[in-house]
Design brief:
By secondary structure, the protein is an alpha+beta fold. It folds into two domains: 72 residues; 59 residues, no CATH class. It is 51% helix and 21% strand. It is built from three helices and six strands, in the order ααββββαββ. The protein has a six-stranded mixed beta sheet. β3 and β4 form a beta hairpin. α1 runs antiparallel to α2.
C-alpha cells in the first residue's frame, strides 16, 4: 500500500509536471503564432506581432525553467525515509495543520484531509526545519506545536 508521504510526493510531482507541460505548450503556441504571423503580415505590424510572440516565448521559457527547478528539488527527496526531525521530504503534523516539506504547491486533499505542500525556503518551511515532535514556534501571531514528524 502506498504511504501518505508517497501520495503527497506523487501529487507534488504531478503538480510540477502540469506546470512543465503548460510551459512547453506555451512555447510551442508562441512559436506557431510567430510562424503564422510571418505568413500573413508585413512591415511594422509584422515586427510588433513577432516581438509579442518572442515575449510570450520568453515568459513561457521562464516558467519552464522554474518548474524544472521544482522537479530537481523533488528529485532530491526520498519519500520512503522516516524522519525524526523536519527536513525536505518530511510530513509534519501540527496543531494548526499538516505540512509536507518539499515545494510550494498549495493544499492537497488526501482522504478528506488537507495537507499543505510547502517549500523549505518559505516562512513556514524555515520555521518547521529541524523541528521535532513537541517543539513549538510562533508565526504571524499563531502558535504551532509539532505533534509528529514522519
Amino acid at each position: 500500500m502506498i504511504s501518505l508521504k508517497e501520495r503527497l510526493y506523487k501529487m507534488c510531482i504531478d503538480y510540477v509536471q502540469v506546470r512543465i507541460d503548460g510551459a512547453r505548450q506555451g512555447i510551442a503556441d508562441a512559436q506557431y503564432a510567430a510562424i503564422e504571423e510571418t505568413k500573413s503580415s508585413a512591415g511594422d505590424k509584422y515586427e510588433t506581432g513577432r516581438e509579442m510572440m518572442q515575449q510570450e516565448t520568453d515568459r513561457s521559457q521562464l516558467l519552464l525553467n522554474e518548474a524544472n527547478k521544482l522537479m530537481v528539488a523533488l528529485s532530491r527527496i526520498n519519500a520512503h525515509v522516516l524522519h525524526h526531525s523536519a527536513e525536505p521530504g518530511s510530513l509534519i503534523i501540527t496543531n494548526n495543520g499538516a505540512f509536507y516539506l518539499a515545494i510550494s504547491a498549495g493544499s492537497f486533499q488526501v482522504d478528506g484531509k488537507a495537507y499543505f505542500a510547502v517549500s523549505p525556503a518559505s516562512p513556514i518551511g524555515t520555521h518547521l526545519a529541524g523541528r521535532k515532535a513537541g517543539d513549538e514556534f510562533s508565526l504571524n501571531g499563531r502558535s504551532y506545536r509539532v505533534e509528529s514528524v514522519h
